[in-house]
Design a protein that fits this description.
The chain folds into 2 domains: about 15-245, Type I PLP-dependent aspartate aminotransferase-like (Major domain) (Aspartate Aminotransferase, domain 2), CATH 3.40.640; about 250-335, Aspartate Aminotransferase, domain 1 (Alpha-Beta Complex), CATH 3.90.1150.10. It contains 14 helices and 13 strands. The chain is of the alpha/beta class. The structure holds pyridoxal-5'-phosphate.
């Protein structure tokens, strides 16, 4: 038994999902004739309370196209220093959109209205025009932290009447929804564009969706094409994503419960100093002084557990759909005894 906690992207399509894929109705999606993709895009637009949505092969492409859709260089994007759009998209903000980035020092990855307000440039010939604020909910490097609606509303208050656009990297938005009183559409309301991943906790093999106004999504469709992301009978992936939305959202709760159990156990591990608060399915555990991630990763590997180094003195574990209670118990037992 191998327990892979490196990411919630490691899941394989279930039997039910494979059946949905094999019976998908298909057409040419560059001609906008794939009925399964049309259905998926309508479904996600509805769930996120937006006019329109567009399927993407990755969350990175969805975010990058969103940023390009909402900006016109020269200009600047404002985000937390640990944002996926900045840290893990290979410099795409500069490469694709010609923007500079102003980084904020968020708390568990979350930025405040005050810090956003202070980061907005005044209209001056020297200064890049502030064009986009991008946030992440849940926040990956923040340990799966969730924004409250009050926090989002106060950022919206700062952006009101500035013309600055607001993008949500909602790769794990449904994890946030699962642990809060708000629906996906309520959480999406403040934003011009919202990206969601179906290939993370929801278990599809491939796929992200970007939602927004009809005009922005029309523009995004062209930008997706210019990046080589126009796909043909892509309903085979769309069918997996529809299956994921219909069957797997409610299972995120189990991922969160298992993450809490593992986190409790890991606090008893002699190599671990502390963890970030575990709000959803991500456990970020800081090592005791003098230890390196490899010291614990190699011990975990000896026990058939895969995890990830997270910087120089922490590891990350992510729970997901393919993790059973038996596997989670194995992890808890092993870490308690390290
Ligand atoms: C995974 C992830 C993405 C998108 O990643 P892809 O691998 O390109 O699909 C974007 N944002 C966050 C926060 C993520 O965790």
């Amino acid at each position: 038994m191998l327990v892979d906690l490196r990411s919630d992207t490691v899941t394989k399509p279930s039997v039910g999902m494979l059946k949905a894929i094999s019976s998908a109705k298909l057409g040419d999606d560059v001609f906008e004739e794939d009925p399964t993709i049309i259905k998926l895009e309508a479904m996600v637009a509805e769930m996120l309370g937006k006019e329109s949505s567009l399927f993407f092969p990755s969350g990175t492409m969805a975010n990058q196209v969103a940023i390009k859709t909402l900006s016109s260089p020269p200009g600047e994007l404002i985000c937390d220093k640990n944002s996926h759009v900045y840290l893990y998209e290979s410099g795409g903000i500069a490469f694709n959109s010609g923007l500079s980035v102003k980084l904020l020092d968020g708390e568990l990855g979350k930025v405040t209205a005050e810090s956003v307000s202070a980061a907005i440039n005044e209209d001056h010939v020297y200064l890049p025009e502030s064009q986009i604020v991008s946030i992440e909910n849940t926040h990956n490097r923040g340990g799966g932290s969730i924004y409250s609606m009050e926090e989002l509303d106060s950022i919206v208050g700062v952006l009101k009447d500035t013309g600055i656009r607001f993008h949500l990297d909602g790769a794990r938005l449904f994890n946030a929804v699962t642990e809060s009183d708000y629906s996906a559409s309520e959480f999406s309301r403040p934003f011009d564009t919202v990206s969601v991943c179906l290939s993370k906790g929801l278990g599809a093999p491939v796929g992200s969706v970007l939602a927004g106004s009809a005009a922005n999504i029309r523009k995004a469709r062209k930008l997706r094409k210019v990046m080589g992301g126009g796909m043909r009978q892509v309903g085979i992936l769309g069918a997996a994503c529809i299956y994921a939305l219909e069957n797997n959202i409610e299972k995120l709760k189990d991922d969160h419960i298992r993450a809490k159990h593992i986190a409790e156990a890991i606090l008893n591990c002699s190599m671990i100093k502390s963890t970030l608060p575990v709000e959803t399915n991500i456990i970020v555990a800081e090592l005791k002084e003098g230890l390196k991630p490899d010291d614990i990763l190699s011990k975990l590997r000896e026990n058939n557990i895969l995890s990830f180094a997270f910087g120089k003195n922490a590891i990350r574990m992510v729970t997901h759909l393919d993790l059973t209670d038996e596997m989670a118990d194995h992890v808890s037992k092993v870490v308690r005894n390290l």
